[in-house]
Give the backbone structure.
Amino acid sequence: MPNAYLVFNPAAGRFPSRILTERARDVLHDYGWEIHLAQTAGGDHITQLAKRAVREGADAFFLAGGDGSINYALAGLVGSETPFGVLPAGTANVWAQELGLHGLTWTRWMALEESARRLATADVRQVDVGYCNDAPFLLWAGVGLDAFIVHRIEPRSRWEKHFAVAHYASVAMQEASDWGGIHLDVTTDGKVISGHYILGVVSNIHLYAGGLSVISPHACLDDGQMDLWLFAGETLIETLRHAWNLWSGRHLESDQVQCVPFRKLKITSRFAMHVQVDGEPKVTNEIVSIEVRPKALRVLIPAEAPRALFAPGGGA
């Protein structure tokens, strides 16, 4: 019988998750899994539990939480043989959206059980992980306006999470009206790209902005590279134009947007930059170094995903 940890963060997302996680545990048990259920206070405690699962040779580490909780689990799982499975109990659940797993909502109370059922027999695949100034990330790393907004709104109370989109939009409009962009020098593959940008986002996945936008339509989770997206400008009008283009997919055709595929890069600025990884605020710095570690994480991928996630010919 395979054994696994199932860790839940009661503070994650919009809804209390203990009872729902226990029901997901029962689903996994019905599929033959022996489950050790553990509650976490979040943050570094998630990392500690992930490391414990690795030390004990667990056959999987399941986490009921959101994208921020996922980020903490990475630090304990990267480079190990323990596969990672996510039951979406957070606010946006963009990683789960990428895999086609539905998050908890007022109309979808069975979401964790549905996800547990799909992950119980899922394939194990190896995916790339990024490191931003030694902090691992699975989805994105960013500087500029979005990172500044993340620093403004996190951590959020549970009532704010119920109005996550409206809350983010209101803060974004407030900050964008005063945002003048940031000068960046990007060094990758021996060349330097310089300019004044509203934001720069490194993406490992297709989705962005809470899953409302497809930023990298050709992203692969296992091709050993990621995309840096640079959005030029400094005015509110330019910011609003980029937001519309991102939502509509027109950023792919804009001459004010540049996509830079890379394996390793360095971003420097004249002033300290706000940094976010997987939607979590990180320490500001004048230098941001990012590298891709190919196939560094084993993850449970449901049999049916809404989009192509892997490079052609990639093995399980």
In short: DSSP finds nine helices and 15 strands in the chain. Residues 18-30 form the longest helix (13 residues). Confidence is low (pLDDT under 50) at residues 156-167. The longest strand covers residues 280-301.
